[in-house]
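seq:
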Amino acid sequence: MTSTFQERVVLVQGASQGMGRETALALGRLGARVIVGARRPEGCAQVAREIIDAGGEAVPCPVDVTDSASVARQFAAIEAQFGRLDAAFNNVGATLGNSPTHETPIERFRATLDVNLVGTFQSMQHELRLMRAGGRGGAIVNTSSIGGVRGFAGIQDYCASKWAVIGLSKSAALEYAEQRIRINVIAPGLVATERFEQAREAYPAILKQRLAEIPMQHAGTMGDVADTVCWLLSDASRFITGEVLHLDGGECARMPC
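struct:
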């Protein structure tokens, strides 16, 4: 069993920043042919350049995962250039506001589902079609959150979407297991992304409270996430499918997540 990705074609959605960017860079170092997907073309191009400059192989492939036509164009380009897809990390997610449920605008609720759930679903549909056509199996990792296994006041739209990502992933894992396509989920807790640093400045008291809820007493790193995703996409986890891995420093050990 190996955790290297020599000659494997791997797509990372949401790769222009944060956990997606870190994972794309890690996959490049492991020998993958990385397809860098994100909404901003300049962000895709920058991450692809970083991978290439480090000696890896990458192509930028911008996409708006909420737009069916944009997703279809992205996968048509992938099929035309590579003819197959071996693995994918759907790092799709957005928090669009904070409010009590009775005050949350329906427009925000729908927009959150459109990004977090529909964006994951549309990407996964195309990934599965390519993987099935290739007949070689494959691996998919979707990003949920500990907000997908517990509640957080004020972001009920985000939590609902991330719970749904887990249900979607588990169902699909059962459907495609016999075709050797594995589908797993990561559920990160507090991770030190760019937004973490912004929160440190803007909401120090809230961040201090969140850190106190973590048994390990610190946030995870983007490298922690990248290492886990690479493992789940690799042959080293070839007998694992339909699972949810909590990357949370023990936070969910306090509850029946």
